[in-house]
Amino acid sequence: MAAIELRRLRAFVTVVEEGNITRAAERLFIQQPPLTRLLQGLEDELEVKLLQRLPRGVRVTEAGKVLFDEARALLARAEHLTEAVRRAARGEQGHIAIGFTSSAALHPFVPNLLRRYRDILPGIATQLEEAGSGELMDALVDQRLDVAFVRSPASGIPGLTVEPVLSEPMIAALPVGHRLAVESPAPLPLDALAHEAFILYRRPAGQGLYDAILAACHRAGFSPRIVQEAPRLPATLSLVGAGLGLSIVPASMRRLSGDGIVYRAIAADAQLSAPLYLALRSNQTSAMVERFRQLVAETALADYSA
């Protein structure tokens, strides 16, 4: 309905609730003559008598009773709609699609952040999608995702912005019984793995970590002998647990607690770390996404700065 029609309905409902035009005018903060014109206009528009004028007030007609019930529901819906739109404009209501890699999901930062986001903004519906960094970047470009936690800086992808969130060490995952799978407080020198069989997850799915491992091995003086590639990090660890080789994974992957796997820290001089980034579209104008971005930055600064 047009705005003037809503004004007429609001005036009519107020008059019926007060039972008196003078009191209704005071409640609406208008003079009595304009209020009377609003009521007359509503009756003329509907071509029906809605109110019976009495010496001391008004009485609603049968047709007016029907309109009163419908008008109150409509006005309540209009007020709800207005507030919903304002909440959406403030980034407090709507729907957000969030992507993450499997390794990102295992870092406590991501589930803790999502829980906090839900608590702070319960009016936001979240859709979660797990995939490799490359697939998540494609989904962002295609606007199937709004934001994504990835392991690759994704430099050179037009239309995307990638912001650093945190960084964690990488560790060696070795099968039980391997000569290096021993309880030792000493970090493992990377060059100790020079002649070992490596299991890595496919570069298209995790280009950032894949390239970081190869670069670190080259700095240590060897090229890793890759015997198997897996589609995801959990699958990589399953192959390690089966004794097919070893791998290098983010430290948060320890949370999987896979059978048949021993984890060891890698010496600091290997300069091996697993960064976590937040990726989003550069032209993103959604207040909801901006609220999420700000919460990521605040949480990382408060809980994971070092």
Automatic annotation (TrEMBL):
InterPro entries: BudR_PBP2 (IPR037410), LysR_HTH_N (IPR000847), LysR_subst-bd (IPR005119), WH-like_DNA-bd_sf (IPR036388), WH_DNA-bd_sf (IPR036390). One of its GO terms (cellular component) is protein-DNA complex. It comes from the Bacteria. Keywords: DNA-binding, Repressor, Transcription, Transcription regulation. SUPFAM superfamilies: Periplasmic binding protein-like II, Winged helix' DNA-binding domain. The keyword Nucleotidyltransferase does not apply. Residues 4-61 form the HTH lysR-type domain. GO terms for molecular function: DNA binding; DNA-binding transcription factor activity. The keyword Repressor applies. It holds the Pfam family HTH_1. Belongs to the LysR transcriptional regulatory family. This is Ben and cat operon transcriptional regulator. It comes from Serratia ficaria.
